[in-house]
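Run log // design_07
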């Protein structure tokens, strides 16, 4: 190392210290070095009652990051994932969001699962100018400047599912859900749709999140003898619900049931034998046949083991990372406002097929499918819609 000019060294050191304590000042560019990483927050329940459905999303997000990094990263930077556990606790989600944005300085967050967790982080996103990619099917009734919604909102799945069910045998419906905003809003959409197709609601029941005793509700179902159970029971409660339905003689061979919240990942926890014959309506199923999905599923199994299954939220989480990458590259910036602006109309050839971010409402136009659970935990796809535009604010 050559001789150092003491006065210039002290000036540079003072500038370095000042930059490190002034919010918003970029440190490395001032001293001539280019940052080689960009941080992306991954915020999901890795513990608690929702972990059965949510924890696997992190694996799909990490795989997308690894794929992107292997091809050079984003705008010349490698993505550094910062993973946090929301622990199925909504205040914890808010605390972790604050930490990711303030301390870790992430460019964006892919995260949340339940609407309660998403609602909890919105004030933090607004306060700290953050951007969330939300990868879970949800009830709609929201359009937020700080959120890109990469899965289906309720009208895309609920209306499609009810219309399809009504065309099958029977038009009486029993509605069962967990007691929070998503199931209740889905049923507000389902009920007028059932009436429109000439059906009848013969029961409507809710159970607390994490509930494991469904005997009373199942007794009401048995008494009502519906043609269809429409279920929005979520998370670990489905283990008990499906097992108890089967024990009561209401398995998939004897009772038609369709859920808009049970994917292959949940069946892995529920037990394949307990789900056989029941239906689900999703944007994505692992059994889809197309080149993108075959590559995606192969990569998941290669990375995480041949026994791993892939469900809709996992695929939407994987898509979210790529949609952020594409928007940043289109914007030529990681600036939140520029990334949001670049997202309008953005298309991606996803494993489920081509998806497109709506020009103004931050939701995704996509197809949805109905599948019937097999003994191996996969679904036979029995129906596929055309591309459905998102409608987060339907007239109910």
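design_07 sequence
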């Amino acid at each position: 190392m050559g001789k150092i000019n003491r006065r210039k060294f002290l000036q540079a050191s003072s500038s370095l210290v000042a930059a490190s304590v002034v919010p918003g000042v970029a440190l490395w560019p001032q001293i001539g070095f280019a940052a080689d990483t960009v941080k992306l927050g991954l915020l999901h329940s890795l513990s608690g009652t929702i972990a059965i459905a949510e924890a696997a999303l992190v694996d799909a997000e990490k795989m997308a990051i690894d794929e992107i990094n292997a091809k050079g990263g984003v705008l010349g930077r490698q993505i550094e994932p910062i993973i946090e556990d929301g622990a199925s606790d909504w205040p914890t989600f808010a605390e972790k969001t604050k930490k990711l944005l303030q301390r870790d300085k992430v460019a964006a967050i892919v995260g949340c699962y339940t609407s309660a967790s998403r609602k909890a982080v919105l004030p933090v996103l607004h306060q700290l100018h953050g951007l969330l990619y939300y990868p879970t099917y949800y009830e709609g009734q929201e359009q937020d400047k700080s959120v890109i919604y990469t899965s289906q909102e309720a009208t895309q799945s609920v209306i499609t599912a009810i219309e399809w069910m009504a065309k099958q045998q029977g038009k009486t419906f029993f509605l069962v859900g967990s007691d929070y905003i998503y199931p209740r809003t889905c049923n507000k959409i389902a009920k007028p749709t059932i009436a429109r197709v000439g059906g009848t609601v013969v029961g409507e029941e809710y159970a607390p999140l994490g509930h494991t005793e469904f005997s009373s509700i199942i007794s009401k179902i048995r008494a009502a003898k519906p043609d269809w159970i429409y279920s929005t029971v979520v998370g670990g409660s489905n283990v008990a619900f499906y097992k108890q339905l089967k024990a009561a003689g209401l398995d998939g061979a004897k009772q038609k049931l369709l859920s808009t919240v049970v994917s292959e990942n949940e069946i892995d926890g529920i037990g394949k034998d307990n789900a056989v014959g029941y239906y689900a309506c999703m944007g994505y199923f692992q059994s889809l046949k197309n080149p993108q999905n075959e590559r995606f599923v192969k990569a998941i199994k290669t990375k995480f083991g041949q026994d791993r299954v892939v469900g809709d939220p996992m695929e939407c989480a994987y898509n979210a990372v790529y949609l952020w990458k594409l928007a940043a590259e289109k914007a030529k910036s990681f600036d939140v406002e520029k990334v949001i602006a670049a997202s309008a109309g953005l298309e991606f050839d996803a494993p489920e097929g081509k998806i497109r971010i709506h020009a103004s409402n931050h939701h995704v136009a996509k197809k949805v499918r109905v599948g019937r659970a097999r003994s191996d935990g996969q679904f036979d796809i029995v129906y596929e819609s055309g591309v459905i535009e998102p409608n987060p604010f339907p007239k109910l």
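The radius of gyration is 23 Å.
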